[in-house]
Amino acid sequence: MSGLCFVAVCALIFWPLEELFEGDGAARPKLKDLAALWFYQSFGLWLAAGIIYEIAFFLRQFLPQPWLLLVGRQPFWLQATAALLMAEVWVYVFHRLSHTLPCLWKFHRVHHTLVDMTWSATSRQHPVDFLLIIVGANLPAMLLGVDLRPIAFLVVVERIYTVLLHSNLNLEYGWLTQIIASPRLHRLHHTPKCGNRNYAGILSLLDVLGNTFQPPMTKEQSGETHERFPALADEPTPTQSL
Ligand SMILES: [Zn+2]
Ligand SMILES: [Zn+2]
Question: How far apart are the first and last CA of the chain?
Fold first, then answer.
């Protein structure tokens, strides 16, 4: 049910926006992409939550109780911010490794079969890629005693922001793009020649710090009216280095 609501909310927000601003250039949702969005948002997330819960509560017995209580007593915003930072560092590092290590690229390459950026294709991912990202992103916060509410809030924000990143919107934030990733910034990551840039999920500041930030070009600069990226072949594996 949560997956259906998520797909419906995303469709209500992003579909009209893409049609409005991109017109003929907007990609139409494919049934298999919508099914993946629904599946990962429902069963995928529940499976990830179960794995996180089991690992975190096993390892928590080795942590001092006063520490866990201290973390749990912090204000909501502070716990959410800490959880966000830990999650974003994992997303950046893991994503970068996925473009570097053949054993991870073989899963991550599924995501790079996106030909047209569009909100509905956000979850075009291999299950292993999805689980490793979600579990790794949220396990540290859970392990260190962050309350479930800020973690759940963060997951919702992260999932919706990921859909925004993949939407076919000509959206850029100017200088702020060096801190927060924009759809145009992530679009660049999906072009074959720029796949080793802009790894961040939300905090593009990590790309700046990791020297993998590449500012997006406007459509006018690129000379294209609508960007369509060829699906990557089997080969483009880890051409990049850390
Ligand atoms: Zn990638
Ligand atoms: Zn992507």
Answer: 40
Report the separation in Å between the CA atom of 122 and the middle of ligand 2, taken as the mean of its atom positions. Answer: 7
Q: What is the pLDDT of residues 87-102, one digit of tens each?
A: 999 999 999 999 999 9
63 assigned to some structural domain: yes
User: How many domains does the chain divide into?
Assistant: 1
Ligand nearest to the CA of 92: 1
Is there a domain that residue 242 lies in? no
Cut 0.70: pTM above it: yes
Ligand nearest to the CA of 118: 2
Rounded CA Rg of the chain: 18
CA of 135 to the centre of ligand 2 (A): 18
Per-residue model confidence as pLDDT tens digits over 174-226? 999 999 999 999 999 998 777 689 999 999 999 999 999 999 865 555 555 45
> From ligand 2's centre to the CA of 60, what distance in Å?
33
Quickly count: other Cβ atoms within 10 Å of residue 111's Cβ. 22
Q: Which ligand is nearest to the CA of 201?
A: 2
Distance 49 CA to ligand 1 centre (A): 23
Quote the CA–CA distance of 169 and 22 in Å, as a whole number.
7
Q: How far, in Å, is the centroid of ligand 1 from the Cα of 199? A: 7
Bridge partners (DSSP) of residue 203 are: 180
Would you tell me how many other CB atoms lie within 10 Å of the CB of residue 180? 14
Q: How far is the CA of 166 from the centre of ligand 2 (A)?
A: 6
User: Length of the chain, please?
Assistant: 242
234 lies in a domain?
A: no
